[in-house]
């Protein structure tokens, strides 16, 4: 799994070769909510820094959210601690896909949905971004399985996940720009 420790707080270019298709813009958190139903983060980078709506936001610990609104110098981020945040994830031990959302009142935990019934999961199994969205590159840490939950579905299981990001101490983040996004969008729109 790739590390974000190669990203310096004073540069917007990433060194790690696994992320050559991305530009990482460092930003400081200037406001952050974690106890609301709809949690947002305010950062000190905006349109003048190349930030656009729907860009992903991460920190050195893992996933944070995505850009919701942008002004010249600031941006608001829809936190992972928001009912509309759903992320395509992949289990690192078996490569299977699932979806992660918050769905809780506790900022430390989320919910993993759409887990195939045949998967044997254990506490501590890791989930990372799948790379199948236009928002996050693959292999950004999301969290680890805390416990299996009862599911209403007869086809899929559900689990509680402990987020790798500590949202209560969030200070520095990176906004992610896929430098090939326009080209990717042009192909998707041709469907």
Topology:
Elements: E1 22-32, E2 40-43, E3 56-59, E4 62-70, E5 75-79, E6 86-91, E7 97-101, E8 109-116, E9 126-129, E10 141-149, E11 156-163, E12 172-178, H1 181-188
Antiparallel strand pairs: 1-2, 1-12, 2-5, 3-4, 3-12, 4-5, 6-7, 6-9, 7-8, 8-11, 9-10, 10-11
Description:
The chain is mostly beta strands and about 190 residues long. The protein has 1 helix and 12 strands. Strand 3 and strand 4 form a beta hairpin. The longest helix is centred in the C-terminal third of the chain and has 8 residues. It is globular and about 50 Å long. The two termini are about 35 Å apart. The N terminus is likely disordered.
Low-confidence stretches: 1-15
Structural class by secondary-structure content: mainly beta
The total count of strands amounts to: 12
Strand content: 35-45%
| SS element count, helices | 1
- Please list the strands of the largest sheet in the order they lie side by side: 1-2-5-4-3-12
| Residues in helices, as a percent range | under 10%
Report the order of strands and helices: EEEEEEEEEEEEH
Major pleated sheet: 6 strands, antiparallel, barrel
**Overall 3D form:** globular
End-to-end gap? 33 Å
Mean pLDDT: 86
Quick tags:
191 residues, mainly beta, 6-stranded antiparallel beta barrel, 1 helix, globular, disordered N terminus
In short:
With 191 residues, the chain is mostly beta strands. The radius of gyration is 16 Å and the shape is globular.
């Amino acid at each position: 799994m790739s590390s974000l420790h190669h990203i310096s707080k004073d540069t917007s270019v990433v060194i790690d070769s696994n992320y050559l298709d991305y530009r990482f813009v460092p930003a400081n958190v200037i406001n952050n909510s974690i106890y609301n139903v709809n949690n947002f983060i305010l950062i000190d980078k905006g349109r003048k820094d190349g930030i656009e709506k729907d860009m992903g936001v991460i920190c050195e610990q893992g996933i944070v959210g995505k850009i919701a609104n942008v002004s010249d110098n600031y941006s608001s981020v829809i936190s992972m601690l928001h009912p509309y945040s759903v992320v395509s994830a992949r289990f690192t031990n078996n490569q299977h896909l699932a979806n992660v959302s918050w769905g809780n009142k506790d900022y430390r935990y989320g919910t993993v949905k759409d887990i195939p019934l045949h998967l044997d999961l254990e506490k501590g199994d890791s989930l990372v971004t799948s790379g199948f969205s236009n928002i996050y590159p693959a292999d950004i840490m999301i969290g680890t399985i805390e416990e299996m939950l009862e599911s209403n579905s007869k086809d899929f299981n559900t689990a509680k996940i402990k987020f790798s990001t500590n949202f209560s101490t969030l200070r520095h983040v990176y906004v992610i720009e896929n430098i090939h996004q326009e080209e990717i969008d042009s192909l998707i729109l041709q469907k």
